[in-house]
Amino acid sequence: MKKPKPLKTVVQAAGLLSLLLLALLGYTFLPLKLDVAANQTPTPATTRGKPDPAQLPDVSLSLLKAGKMPARQAFAYRGGNWGGAYENGMAAILVQHPQATFLIDAGFGANVAQHWQTIPWLMRQLSSYVVETPVAVQLPQHGIARDQIKFALLTHSHWDHISGLEDFPGLEVRLPTAEKAFIEAHKYPGLIDQMIGTMNVRTFDFNSGPYENFDRSFDLFGDGSVVLVPLPGHTDGSTGVFVNLRSGKRFLFTGDLTWSLEGFQLPAERPWLARKLVDVDEAEVRRSIIKVHLLLQQYPDLVVVPAHDRRVHERIASLPAVER
Ligand SMILES: [Zn+2]
Ligand SMILES: [Zn+2]
Q: Residue 186's pLDDT is what?
């Protein structure tokens, strides 16, 4: 019997192993729905929720597009499409409340090229970005002076949500205590570490009692119009923001808990590679996704807005138009 050459055997084995690993990686992109029962957490026995619109103050909101990242839908959720264009939108939400005009997140700012360099090398190889008009430039174009913005509320502290904050020096930035602790623990170093020292941070806790299927919440103005809930997993202090309008229309801004609406509808998580790159606690992400999934079933009219789903952004009034 002829003995196989050792080198040939090694090359063949390496080839086989690579194929196996590729097949395994491919599998992690295939459709797989999250198990709702396995990831469901208890709902509070007594809770507040959908307010009487007639009791709400006159609040309006508008979306401001501020940058985008071309991507594949397959990277956004398990079962997403590999073909065709898919845009991850960067955006800020302008909320005009009788007590304060404020932003939810800030999109890409004027120095996005510099900020891009702060993200991990692998992320930069796997993605790219496109500049749009920064929020601080757009606002004055629509008659809103920068100093009319009283604070920015963050869904979380990742670079693509805070880049635009640099264009508002000294602006108060509101974060839950858990996100501040997360930043200080350096679990995801980056732009936030460079900015936190000069940021005017004001923390809050979810101490307004249960809300919908969340056991904790923070009613920002105490009038039921803007209610914050913990949506941990992507970062420790990731926050969901309900905005309840007088028309009866309700929004829930979910940050990066999912990158696409399908994540909540199916429900489905990000593929393995994306989870490893961006989430700190995958199990928490699953539990948070299921909370929003169940809310969508309860309230089909609730406008759930993943921070980067531009197809959802297109359905929200863009400044100068407003939702009211
Ligand atoms: Zn993020
Ligand atoms: Zn993001």
A: 82
The answer to whether residues 5 and 143 belong to one domain is no
Centre of ligand 2 from the C-alpha of residue 19, in Å: 32
Ligand with smallest separation from the Cα of 278: 1
- So what's the pLDDT on residue 176? 98
- pLDDT tens sequence across 80-118: 998 878 999 999 999 999 999 999 999 999 999 999 999
Ligand approaching nearest to the C-alpha of 238: 1
Q: Does residue 190 fall inside a structural domain?
A: yes
Q: What average pLDDT does the structure give for the chain?
A: 95
The boundaries of the domain holding residue 164 are 34-313
Quick one: three-class SS letters along 221-280? CCCCCEEEEECCCCCCCCEEEEEECCCCCEEEECCCCCCCCHHHHCCCCCCHHHHHHHCC
Distance between Cα 155 and ligand 2 center (Å): 9
CA of 134 to the centre of ligand 2 (A): 16
Structure tokens, 117: 């360099």
In a shared domain, residues 24 and 118? no
- Give every CB contact of residue 25 below 8 A, 6+ residues apart in sequence: 272, 273
Looking at the fold, whether 3 and 122 belong to one and the same domain comes out as: no
pTM (predicted TM-score): 0.95
Residue 80 domain-assigned?
Answer: yes
Structural domain contains residue 50:
yes
Report residue 306 as tokens.
């993943």
Share of the chain above pLDDT 70, in %: 98
- 124 and 139 in a single domain? The answer is yes
Ligand 1 mean position, distance from CA 176 (Å): 15
Distance of CA 155 from the midpoint of ligand 1 (Å): 9
Q: Considering every ligand atom, which ligand is closest to the CA of 233? A: 1
Number of helices (H) and strands (E), helices first, in the chain?
12, 11
C-beta separation of 94 from 66 below 8 A: no
CA 191 to ligand 2 centroid distance, Å: 13
Same domain, 25 and 126: no
Ligand 2 centroid – CA 292 distance (Å): 18
